[in-house]
Amino acid sequence: MQVIAFDIKSSTAHFRRPDTTTTHLTYPFMTPTAAKGLVGAILGEEDFTTSDIIGIQLLKPVRSIAQQMSMLGKIGKATCDTFNRPTTIELLVNPAYRLYYAGNEYTEKLYHQLKEGKSVYPTYLGSAFALTKPENLQLLETKPVDISEGKQVDSLTVVPVPVIQELKITEEAHYSRANGFLRYYKGNRNFEKSVDFLFEHNGKPVSFQPQNAELIQAEEITMVEMEEGFLCLL
């Protein structure tokens, strides 16, 4: 399987958790739906939906701060009534990711756009104030992972929790679980299902023994291997 890889970074990012209201909390890293949305912006596809798969690698440690902001806006369709609401927002600091993209729908078109340095719409990390530009384009050759009994996998990408049978604790690793990522975007602001991830705070590989191949396939998760390591794509 051919996989497109490219890097994105910014000084800040915000991937809003939909289950928060008063305080705007962020997921600790880019969500799969936001990553596919960024691909849609590059391609110029509005309300982008696809069965292509994506993986997310952390290139920098996860850091966040809380910032007080004034949210300005209008009330409904009013022309004069406005509001100024102080709001606490959580921001990611100096985030950087490597995205791995594969599939049969948009891979070829995406590679062409990235190779030419083109994007139809602006690309950003979750919010319009966190602009980014894809760089370091690569076209990688991968092969399916041979999942055998007791096999250890060192995943470069964040790992969906359902594929983990046993986590291998390594020295100085700082593992965390991030819950409630929206999984499938169906268009018109509709989402289906959620997925939890395990990640290493400093971007180190996650070492684990995977579940059996049938269970991983049932979860619609793809695991592939390349020279540098393993990838989990969904």
From TrEMBL:
GO biological process terms on file: defense response to virus; maintenance of CRISPR repeat elements
Coiled-coil ranges (or none): none
Record has RNA-binding as a keyword: no
UniProt keyword annotations, A-Z: Antiviral defense
Pfam families: Cas_Cas5d
Top-level taxonomic group: Bacteria
Name this polypeptide is given: CRISPR-associated protein, Cas5h family
